[in-house]
Amino acid sequence: MSNETVLKVADLVKKYENLTAVNHVSFAVKKGEVVGLLGPNGAGKTTTINMILNILEPTEGSVEVLGKNLKDNGSETGNKINFAAVYAHVPANLSVWQNLYVFGLLYEVKNLKERIKFLLREFDLENFADTKAGLLSSGELSRLNLAKAIINEPALLLLDEPTASLDPHIAEIIRGKIKTYAIKTGAAVLWTSHNMREIEAVCDRVLFLSHGKILLAGDPKILPQENGKKDLEELFIAIAREPLSDI
Q1: What angle, rounded to 10 degrees, do the helices at 138-149 and 168-185 form?
Q2: pLDDT in tens, 4-22
Q3: Contact 239/215 with Cβ under 8 angstroms?
Q4: Residue 2: what pLDDT?
Q5: In the structure, what pLDDT confidence band is assigned to residue 242 with cuts at 50, 70 and 90?
């Protein structure tokens, strides 16, 4: 793992009238590092990711990608970021090949047809190239979403519950593809999930969010024991139920 910082989030705040969804959050993700962003529903995970994606504008704070401020360099940094989530659907009326082609054009991918050919082979989608996305199974669609998410070879990959609702076999395949991508390319990965076994298997570090604040951070394999819990799931439940001072 490199010491080069790909993502730097500094004092990030997002307020909606009387609600503070993200409350002065700061963290960094290095090249080749997979970081889990954890917390109960409403903790601020997706809001944080949407600000990193430049979909939402922060109330305060800043996001830097490869040393450049996202607010001032959105178009330049945008081509270095990509995203996947089970709820972020690709156009159902386009075929697998057409979806990859359209997203490749949006990201200005060079040698696009060759890149698509590689991704179809890499994600075992060659037999579905002409199949409309709306006709794919959940596993096939997840593979397409991930292929789309790395079509531009992003330096920063954001994953919001990428394996939710998948059977264990397909989820394991998707996890393996993501981990392999991070290792081979040195991409930084920020990953949200409620599956603590998954997080333990793939993440180098975790950040626990609660009520918009980071309460705990560390190695998922030793963080539970450091806080008197037997595993990550027990720690997650404790954080969801109680303030940090009571954990």
Answers
A1: 10
A2: 999 999 999 999 988 999 9
A3: yes
A4: 66
A5: low
- Cα 75 from chain centre: 20
Lookup result for tokens 């963080």: 223
CA atoms within 13 A on the CB side of 202: 31
Q: Encode pLDDT of 171-209 as tens digits.
A: 888 888 899 999 999 999 999 988 898 999 899 999 999
pTM equals 0.91
Encode 46-55: b = buried (16+ Cβ within 10 Å), e = exposed: bbbbbbbbbe
Q: Are the C-beta atoms of residues 191 and 159 closer than 8 Å to each other?
A: yes
C-beta of residue 173 within 8 angstroms of C-beta of residue 200: no
CA 116 to chain centre: 22
**In whole angstroms, what is the distance from residue 116 CA to residue 148 CA?**
9
The three-class DSSP label of residue 123 is coil
Give residues with Cβ within 8 angstroms of 53, minimum separation 6: 81, 83, 158
